[in-house]
Amino acid sequence: MDSRTWDERYRAADLWGSEPNVFVREAVVDLPPGRALDVAAGDGRHTLWLARLGWDVDAVDFSTVAMQRGADLAREQGVASRTRWHVADVLADPLPPGPVDLVVVAYLQLPVQALGAALAAACAHVGPGGTAVLVGHDRSNLAGGTGGPQDPAVLWTTDDVATAARAAGLEIRDAAVRERAVAGADRPALDAVVLARRPVA
Q1: How far is Cα 178 from Cα 165, in angstroms, rounded to an integer?
Q2: Strands (E), 69-188
Q3: In terms of pLDDT, which residue wins out, 19 or 4?
């Protein structure tokens, strides 16, 4: 979907809620706050949560409506000074300059070649000792899970994601398909979760 389609979706509904993804929360909650980059941030649920924890966050998404909603919420929550909202296409536009202590990419569902390029670009911003948290709908979710895109071309595999992180010089700390509970569903969603870190020189 293009940016105008996403703009319409964000105008029509609160798509993701206000709570962070469970795997992002698990990976980040014990890290000391620093500077973060939230790629494909939507309307900022992770950006806002990180800012409330004391992180200084750049959010990037190609939906103007989503970025404006995130900025409005940041003002309402008293964290505007710790957030910056960038309307940009991760496949065509440069990301805010790094390095950063944390990169979060959650549910950026693209064909494998485009995904690899976007993830490698995002992971390149991780500074020494920094962390990347990469979460997306796994390909196995199509047959064995709940929700998510129904096009296998845009579903992740941990191998593809780990390859992109390694291309940016990161070390893989964990790469697994994880079950995520979905309210009202008979079975969980299946997500690819990759955690990576840049070595300290």
Answers
A1: 18
A2: 83-87, 100-106, 126-137, 171-180
A3: 19
Distance, in Å, from the CA atom of 28 to the CA atom of 100, rounded to the nearest integer, reads 14
* Residues 6+ positions from 70 with CB-CB distance below 8 Å: 41, 42, 43, 44, 47, 48, 59, 83, 85
- Sketch out the chain's domains with CATH numbers: 3-149+156-197 (3.40.50.150)
Cβ 110 vs Cβ 154: under 8 Å: yes
DSSP category for residue 44:
-
**Arithmetic mean of pLDDT, 157-166:** 97
Q: Other C-beta atoms within 10 Å of 80: how many?
A: 15
Which among 94, 8, 104, 13 has a CA at the least distance from the CA of 51? 104
- In angstroms, rounded to a whole number, what is the distance separating the alpha carbons of residues 30 and 26? 8
168, 98 in Cβ contact below 8 A?
A: no
pLDDT reading at 14 higher than 70: no
Mean pLDDT across the chain: 92
- The mean per-residue pLDDT over the stretch 147-174 comes to 96
List residues bridging with 56 in a β-sheet. Answer: 35
Token couple for 57: 């966050």
The helix or strand, by DSSP H or E, that contains position 35, with its residue range, turns out to be: strand 35-39
